[in-house]
Task: structure prediction
Amino acid sequence: MGVFLAKKLRCGFACQQAGVGLIEVLVTLLILSTSLLALGAMQTRSLQFNQGAYFRSQANIFAYDILDRMRVNVVNLKDYDSALINVPENTAPVLAPLAAADLHAWRRNISAELPNGKGGIDCDDLTKICKLTIEWDELNSTGNAAEDKTTFTYSARL
Result:
């Protein structure tokens, strides 16, 4: 009979290890802490992606907003091209300020809702196709504007 078997027969169950060793506890704590850190990092990234999706949704809403305003004033479509709007001599004085007011309100909303938000419009009078561009800064994990610029471009025929 071997030494191990003889010792086991002599001690019975009393000689066997009872409980958990310190190494097993440390390994378990290491795995648990690593898992919790990964879970926290995943939650942070999820919040960042959620904020980015919110900004894209806002940009989409702003694009449809100005397009609806432009459809009302389609006669003066070219007046929506820039923020500095000069009233042409041959246009009715009532409609040209409408384009200026629309652009001002649209850009004010963009800058209020999007970090460092900017909006621009380029319209072609012949084809009546307008290209809207909305640009903003993405937020980093601290909530400050990062160097990453996101540009939302939308083309529509009015």
Residues 55-157 form a domain with the Nuclear Transport Factor 2; Chain: A, fold (CATH 3.10.450). The beta strands are 118-124, 129-139, 145-157. Residues 84-95 have pLDDT under 50 and may be disordered.
